[in-house]
Every structure is written in structure tokens, then in C-alpha cells.
Design brief:
Helix content is about 75%, strand content about 0%. The chain has about 120 residues and is mainly α. The protein has one domain (about 5-110). The radius of gyration is 15 Å and the shape is elongated.
């Protein structure tokens, strides 16, 4: 499976789980569905960016760091516009999604063979 596809799939799955962690914040439980949907979307966006980065750069440490950075920035932007300013509750799982996707795309993604003519 290609690196971008792994990033998209894993980002969507982990993004959904990221959104589900909002259940542990009682003040936002009534918004659970919209939080899960937006977190899934955020995970897909992170997966696309991280996957294409992994396709271009082949370094596990740099891929993990880039994933952490992308996940953290997207989570920060989400927290910035969230009512109540739940920075820690949004940024921790969002950054972890990026870190895991960065690791997985570097470790398990396949780079297509170049055609020789």
C-alpha cells in the first residue's frame, strides 16, 4: 500500500478515535458526533500531508517528527477555535495521531518502483 494511502486510512481511523476521546470531557458530550466527524476529517488531512511527505523523504525519525508537527499544528488550530479552550484535551490526542501516522507511513508504506526505460 502506498504511503499516502496508509496516511489517509490510518489518519481517518485514528482521527475518529481522537474525536471519541472527547467523551471523557463531560461538558462537550452533547457535541460528540460533530467532534468525531471533524476529528476524522482532521486525521484525513494530516494523513494526506504526512503520507506525501513520507513519499518524498525516507527517514523514520524525520517522518515521526514531521507527523508530530502536523498533528500538533492541526490540533492547535482546532483548539484555537474551539469554545472553552480545551487545548490539552485537543492537542494531546491530535499530536499522537500525527506521530503514529508519521511512524506508520515511514515504516510500512511502499514507494512505487520507478519505471526504467
Amino acid at each position: 500500500m502506498s504511503k499516502p494511502l496508509i496516511g489517509i486510512l490510518l489518519g481517518a481511523i485514528l482521527g475518529a478515535f481522537d474525536g471519541l476521546t472527547s467523551w471523557f470531557t463531560p461538558a462537550v458530550r452533547e457535541q460528540l458526533a460533530s467532534i468525531v466527524i471533524s476529528s476524522t476529517f482532521k486525521g484525513v488531512i494530516a494523513g494526506i500531508v504526512i503520507g506525501f511527505f513520507a513519499k518524498k523523504f525516507h527517514s523514520l525519525p524525520i517522518g515521526i517528527l514531521f507527523g508530530l508537527l502536523v498533528g500538533g499544528v492541526l490540533a492547535y488550530l482546532t483548539a484555537r477555535f474551539a469554545v472553552g479552550g480545551y487545548y490539552f484535551q485537543i492537542m494531546l490526542p491530535g499530536s499522537m495521531v500525527g506521530l503514529i501516522v508519521g511512524f506508520a507511513t515511514q515504516k510500512y508504506g511502499r514507494v512505487p518502483a520507478e519505471a526504467h526505460g
